[in-house]
C-alpha cells in the first residue's frame, strides 16, 4: 500500500480553523499502521464529543461547532477519516473500503480510550459512526444524527441496524430541512431506535452540510439537550 501525506504547509492560515494538530497511528485488520489526524479542543477531562465528517470533507467542516462545544466544557474531538484532511492517504482507490473505515475509526477510539462519548455523525460519518455505536456500546453514551445512511445491504450493517433497534440510550436527530439528499431520513431512525422516543428532534434551516449552514445552532442544541439529561 503506497501512502501519501499532505504537507503541513497546505493547512496554514485556514480561516476559522486555528486548531493545533494531533495524530495517532491506526490500523485496520488487513492494513499497516497509518497516521490519523484529529482536532482535540476543550478541557482534557471534559465529557468527550466526537464529530465524524462524511465525504468529501474533513474536520474543517466542524470549525463553527468546536469552539462552542469546548467553551461549554466538552472535550471536542474531530478526526479526519483516512484519505481526508491531514490524515494519511493510501494512493489506490481499492485501498478504501467501508470495513476499513470502520476499523480505522474504531482503532482511533481504542487508541484514545474514549468513553462516555457523545457521538455526532453526518453523511458517511453516519454509516461509519452508527456501526461503531452499535458495536462499541460501552464507549458511546448518546448519539446525535444530522443525516443517515441506513442501507442494510451488508450483513454487518444489518447487524448494526438490529443493534440500533435495541439502543435505549439518548438518540437525537437534527436534520437539515433543505437537504435534498437525506432531509427526510430522520423518520425511519426515530421510529426504529428506542432511545429516540421523546427526544427534541428537529429539522432546522440547513442543507446537506448542516454544519456549514447552522454550526452554532447545532452546537447550542447539543449543549442544551445534554444539560437536560443531567
Describe the structure.
With 230 residues, the chain is an alpha/beta fold. The protein has one domain (3-10, 19-229): 3-Layer(aba) Sandwich (Rossmann fold). The chain is 30% helix and 20% strand. Helix 1 links the parallel strand 4 and strand 5. Helix 3 (124-135) crosses helix 4. The model has no long low-confidence stretch (mean pLDDT 93).
Layout of strands and helices, then pairs:
Layout: E1 3-4, E2 22-26, E3 34-41, E4 48-52, H1 66-71, E5 75-79, E6 89-90, H2 98-112, E7 117-121, H3 124-135, E8 140-145, H4 155-164, E9 171-176, H5 186-192, E10 202-204, H6 210-229
Parallel strand pairs: 4-5, 4-7, 7-8, 8-9, 9-10
Antiparallel strand pairs: 1-6, 2-3, 3-5
Helix pairs in contact: 2-3, 3-4
- How is the quaternary structure best described? single chain
Classification by helices and strands = alpha/beta
Tertiary shape: globular
| CATH T-level fold name | Rossmann fold
Question: If helices are DSSP runs of H or I spanning 4 or more residues, what is the number of helices?
Answer: 6
How many domains? The number is 1
Q: What spatial order of strands do you see in the largest sheet?
A: 2-3-5-4-7-8-9-10
Instruction: Report the helical percentage.
Output: 25-40%
Report the CATH C-level class: Alpha Beta
Amino acid at each position: 500500500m503506497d501512502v501519501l501525506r499532505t504537507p503541513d504547509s497546505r493547512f496554514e492560515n485556514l480561516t476559522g480553523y486555528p486548531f493545533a494538530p494531533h495524530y495517532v497511528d491506526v490500523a485496520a485488520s488487513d492494513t499497516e499502521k497509518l497516521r490519523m489526524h484529529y482536532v482535540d479542543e476543550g478541557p482534557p477531562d471534559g465529557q468527550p464529543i466526537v464529530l465524524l465528517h462524511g465525504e468529501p470533507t474533513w474536520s474543517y467542516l466542524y470549525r463553527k461547532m468546536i469552539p462552542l462545544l469546548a467553551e461549554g466544557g466538552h472535550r471536542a474531538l474531530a478526526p479526519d477519516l483516512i484519505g481526508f484532511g491531514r490524515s494519511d492517504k493510501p494512493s489506490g482507490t481499492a485501498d478504501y473500503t467501508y470495513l476499513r473505515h470502520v476499523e480505522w475509526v474504531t482503532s482511533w477510539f481504542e487508541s484514545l480510550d474514549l468513553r462516555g462519548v457523545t457521538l455526532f455523525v453526518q453523511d458517511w460519518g453516519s454509516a461509519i459512526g452508527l456501526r461503531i455505536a452499535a458495536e462499541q456500546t460501552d464507549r458511546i453514551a448518546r448519539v446525535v444524527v444530522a443525516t443517515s445512511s441506513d442501507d442494510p445491504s451488508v450483513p454487518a450493517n444489518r447487524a448494526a441496524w438490529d443493534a440500533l433497534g435495541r439502543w435505549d440510550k439518548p438518540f437525537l436527530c437534527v436534520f437539515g430541512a433543505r437537504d435534498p439528499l437525506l432531509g427526510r431520513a430522520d423518520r425511519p431512525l426515530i421510529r426504529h431506535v428506542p432511545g429516540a422516543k421523546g427526544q427534541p428532534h428537529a429539522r432546522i434551516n440547513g442543507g446537506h452540510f448542516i454544519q456549514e449552514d447552522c454550526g452554532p445552532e447545532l452546537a447550542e442544541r447539543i449543549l442544551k439537550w445534554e444539560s437536560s439529561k443531567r
